[in-house]
Design brief:
Alpha-Beta Plaits, alpha+beta, five-stranded antiparallel sheet, 3 domains, homodimer, DNA-binding, 11 helices, Arc Repressor Mutant, subunit A, four-stranded antiparallel sheet
Amino acid sequence: MTQTSSRLLKLLSLLQARRDWPGNELAERLEVSGRTIRRDVERLRELGYPVESLTGPAGGYRLRAGSAMPPLLLDDEEAIAIAVGLRTAARASVTGIEETAVRALVKLEQVLPAHLRRRVGALGSATFTLPMAGPTVDPQHLTAIAAASRDSECLRFGYRRRDGTDSRREVEPHSLVNLGRRWYLVAWDRGRQDWRTFRIDRMARPASTGVRFTPRRLPAKDAAAYVEQSIAGAPNRYEARVTLLAPAEEVAKRVPSHWGTIEPLDARTCEYRTGDDDLGWLALRIAMLGFDFEVQEPPELLEHLRALALRLERAAA
Amino acid sequence: MTQTSSRLLKLLSLLQARRDWPGNELAERLEVSGRTIRRDVERLRELGYPVESLTGPAGGYRLRAGSAMPPLLLDDEEAIAIAVGLRTAARASVTGIEETAVRALVKLEQVLPAHLRRRVGALGSATFTLPMAGPTVDPQHLTAIAAASRDSECLRFGYRRRDGTDSRREVEPHSLVNLGRRWYLVAWDRGRQDWRTFRIDRMARPASTGVRFTPRRLPAKDAAAYVEQSIAGAPNRYEARVTLLAPAEEVAKRVPSHWGTIEPLDARTCEYRTGDDDLGWLALRIAMLGFDFEVQEPPELLEHLRALALRLERAAA
DNA sequence: GGGATTGAGGACAGATCCTGACCTAAATAG
DNA sequence: CTATTTAGGTCAGGATCTGTCCTCAATCCC
């Protein structure tokens, strides 16, 4: 039966690689009779994959989108592209899919052949995040932590506290949480015998110890809630409100909707609101818009702008 | 034997969803005897998927990375994350995997269930590209064009020439090429009866006509070469060389390696080289580094910096 | 070290399924 | 209208699958 199964997979793979396939070409490729191809197509349909067919000359088979995801059959290059894409998605921190991206990445990396993993690593060193975007998180850390947490394995890492002191931790990872542009791990600290949240960018060399544990119940609704309550007060977040000297429509064309909101003030100006943890980053984002503007708040933003303007002037001198 | 095949797929899916699986749990889930599970594992191994097994208590099965990619079995959320990740990867224009990312995206979108496609579209509207990054390319255009080109189907679109005049085109798409931060389509223009290259960001509503064509031979080594020769002279590219007043090591920590090269000049300064088509974008990239700097070349960069500094000063006033 | 747990795999029998061959029907492009 | 292409019924021989039963081997824990 491994013959039939692998042939079905190959068939699915062919149907994903090109859209239209005449039956006899499939038969040739899979080295079976046309009748068997028809039966295989029937089987795929039974399994829920919608294979369309057209009769007549220029007819053939075609895999449509169905109601469920079929298994994806990727070649090496595509697998790499997906791995790299997921890494950037995990750091995008704009769309709210970061955690899922990491989960998918863990799944993919588990089965990614070694030679491909090396290539992904090489490409991955091309960091996409902007220099000013604050502390960056190593995607390899993310996947290592997510894998340990998925498989209920203890995790060991070095951790630098807020005050700068270093320590080594051994924890039972519960879940990985993305908030704003930061990643947190919620875990039971085995040394301290209590729940803790850790910032991933403060970790050093996280690695599974291989020791399994039985998951504990988190004393909170969910991990995200736990992180929020435990960093309450800390995140010093800034909300910027600036007036742009440009029509709202024109601004809207250039500003991604998730980067803030635009409200028209009059025919020639509009108000732009956006928030961030990092003032420097906030200043740049506004400067990059390419329009003249006036800062309404916060006042701290003005200082950053002044500093930036000075630096540019010095350079342009 | 759709039963055995679908069971094998389910088994593969389970093995991808978690790392360790005891045999009897698999047997329960798949509603077969333990013996059949062992046989299924054997079958997977025959198909080339390396399934490890450990005996003893706490033993079980585990899917390792092999030498070839197994079919990826994704849940809905993961499929969305991958689609979004690939979209950003297609636009990243830094790593050299954009074209593969588009190919993978075409494959995925072909089978992406409708409800998921809607969600991807909603998320996709959160444009990630930076506002200043120049003309953005709609990923839906990219996939539409890539699909037509993969399937040898004619493509129709509106095109705005360099001089601003609009026209409608019907072409036989040959391939999609990514150069720098721009996308080009190499195609046989049916109206003009000749080869042409089109910039994707100048296209309007590209769509397959459904008409099939037989691929022609391109009069060049490959599509990338053809694009390069046909836009020779046009791309007005700038190479910047600036001196940063900061030690090379410190800069290296903040600058992604693909965004330019860093050469130490002395203990306290270094030289940063980077290139781009867009001067404004170039200026920002340097300003964002967060270090004092001096521009060596090009002179045009100075003007942009001055303009930017002025704008910031006005805002900070 | 001993016992319990878990995977490995041979053998068997009955049921099921697969394949290719052959044939007819229906749809479609030119 | 004709050639092409998928749809699918039927048949027969061979291959495959499954569960049961059993014996081994590796590993963990007491």
